[in-house]
Write a structure and sequence with these properties.
alpha/beta, nine-stranded mixed β-sheet, six-stranded antiparallel beta barrel, 8 helices, 17 strands, globular, QueA, QueA_dom2, S-adenosylmethionine:tRNA ribosyltransferase-isomerase, cytoplasm
């Protein structure tokens, strides 16, 4: 499974969810046992009963910012700015779409009074400088929620809350950690009552998560960079979970990449910085015991991560079942609860 095309599957466009359900936890939950390939159709609100007291859920607490800005060049041409990363009160790295690629010194008007200036380029992103005020205030006032490209509508007022997890805390993402969108206050309370602990990591999801893999030979693929933090408290909670015999359940692929990056040296340690970790079949997981995740794009690195955890054949069979049963796909779609395939996790002897 070293080719991009090995991860293709047919998906009817009608199954791509365009809007969220009225209730977050009303989503469906497909349970996959990677050891046997066994599948079970559940409801997401049943999750607390599918976990055990003493387990630990690890959430990504990043908060999506209204990063899409519409503006005009001084010549009048329309420009769309997608802020990828704020690097200072008035500076950011961004994707810029315009009829002609803007060069250094190009000024972009956003709203009536705000001006962004192109400073330069860095790894395909434009560095922009805001003349006055703060980027955070500009995005709050003029920005739109950065809905994924497969959601073919403009963002609405509801997306400010629904394209955001209920536990979002640290602003900086331009895409939601979508596995967390199913959790509501009722589910969170039920988890606590059942004795299931919670920990937090932060990974600011970038727009690169939607960029297609452009090479067929996966050995040639270079992952986009994302900033993350795993703190000492999270590491302590995981150690305590292991000591009591509980399991570490990652909520989303971003939580997986955070934990596995922090454990790349062999032991889980606090980590803050960039990651380009590319997880695909053959990878041995050091930290994660179970995974909650949404359904992902064909030929995407996220689907490859799931195949590494649940097994290639098991994962694609589960996706075929999901299509046959009309599960809702992608960001506003349904979810999976996955137990690992044999050999997916690193043994203590290998550690």
């Amino acid at each position: 499974m070293k080719k991009r095309t090995d991860y293709h599957f047919e998906l009817p466009e009608a199954l791509i969810a365009q809007t969220p359900l009225a209730e977050r936890s009303a989503s469906r939950l497909l349970c996959l046992d990677g050891a046997t390939g066994r599948l079970a159709d559940r409801q997401f609100r049943q999750l607390p009963q599918l976990l055990e007291p003493g387990d630990l859920l690890v959430f990504n607490d990043t908060r999506v910012v209204p990063a899409r800005l519409h503006g005009r060049k001084e010549t009048g041409g329309r420009v769309e700015v997608m802020v990828e990363r704020v690097i200072g009160p008035r500076h950011c790295l961004a994707h810029v779409r315009a009829s002609k690629t803007p060069g250094p010194g190009t000024r972009i008007q956003v709203g009536d009074t705000h001006w962004l200036t192109v400073v330069g380029r860095e790894e395909g992103l434009f560095e922009l400088s805001l003349a006055a005020g703060s980027l955070t205030e500009l995005m709050d006032a003029q920005g739109h929620m950065p809905l994924p490209p497969y959601i073919r509508r403009e963002d609405g007022a509801d997306d400010r809350t629904r394209y955001q997890t209920v536990y979002a805390r640290e602003p900086g993402a331009v895409a939601a950690p979508t596995a967390g969108l199913h959790f509501d206050d009722a589910v969170m309370s039920a988890l606590a009552e059942r004795g299931i602990a919670q920990a937090r990591v932060t990974l600011h999801v970038g727009a690169g998560t939607f960029q297609p893999v452009r090479v067929d030979d996966l050995d040639q693929h270079r992952m986009h960079s994302e900033w993350l933090r795993v703190d000492a408290d999270c590491c302590r909670q995981i150690a305590e979970t292991r000591a009591r015999g509980g399991r570490v359940v990652a909520v989303g692929t971003t939580a997986v990449r955070s934990l596995e990056t922090a454990a790349a040296g062999g032991e889980l340690e606090p980590f803050e910085g960039e990651t380009r970790l590319f997880i695909r079949p053959g990878y041995r997981f050091r930290v994660v015991d179970r995974l909650i995740t949404n359904f992902h794009l064909p030929e995407s690195t996220l689907l490859m991560l799931v195949c590494a955890f649940a097994g290639y054949e098991q994962t694609l069979a589960a996706y075929r079942h999901a299509v046959e049963q009309a599960y809702r796909f992608f960001s506003y779609g349904d979810a999976m609860l996955i137990d690992p395939a044999p050999g997916a996790r690193q043994t203590r002897r290998e550690a």
